[in-house]
């Protein structure tokens, strides 16, 4: 085993990330996710951990929970990482792993295989030096974050409640910023039913579901309030069958983002209360909040201050930010000190140019290592 001074060798870390990236893991390909889970489980062999592998359900892959053999009798550190990516299978042909200057490219490398690997690597480094962190460490790898964590949420909340601190390895933002607040996320489906008719010869018999969908879209788009940080996006809309038939059915899918729980209650209520403006047409809305807002709390703020001091010792400045994207940190922040965005720096999450910055690997790994060593 290498001496712990070499643990933070950039090339070693990058080689490890490459192995994880080259196993593609779209959320909807559970057998691929499980292949990576098996590799990670293998990489814990010989380390002082107990592994629990939770079988995937509802078309998602397995979850893996690695618990340090020490410190499990009291609240400790929970590390949250997801292994699934948004890129479809085969995307690696379009975006192969490659390094150009300070950028390493690959599907999911920034969101968030880089961060997941770096936290795992920092735990390895801790064990290699024979250290035992003051607190137990539990690292959870999940398979479904990119679709809203439907099969892992209960597990995350259960482990989150047991923990004293939660560290989330989502990517850093805008030059290495750490995340101390995130918007809550709501998801809704709108089903509209009208009355079909021949649009040419009997238009008066019809009631257009698509026309009503237009009313609904305008009502939803009208809820946007950027000053309050409220965004409403109609991301999917469809309806009708043929140009000469008054459309009987229409459908939409809607994304809501809010900063606070008060706003969540207000806007979820408004969206669910949408009604039809047209006689003979029905509007039905289903859905709700699938991630509560992650508001910066006192506990979260003091955890951030601690991380900021550690980063300064390591020679870099840790600035905090808030973001509109949701993460698994949203599920823990309300009751446990949570710090997010501890993963790698880079850009292009969910795009065809996704990349991490190689220069961020050693500093981020060292920061996680120091958090493990110093949190009490």
Automatic annotation (TrEMBL):
GO molecular function: carboxypeptidase activity; metal ion binding
Cofactor (UniProt): Zn(2+)
KW Protease (keyword) present: yes
Residue ranges of domain Peptidase M20 dimerisation in the record: 180-277
Residues of the active site: 84, 145 (proton acceptor)
Gene3D superfamilies, per database record: 3.30.70.360, Zn peptidases
Record-given protein name: Glutamate carboxypeptidase
Organism name: Bradyrhizobium daqingense
Lineage of the species this protein comes from: Bacteria, Pseudomonadati, Pseudomonadota, Alphaproteobacteria, Hyphomicrobiales
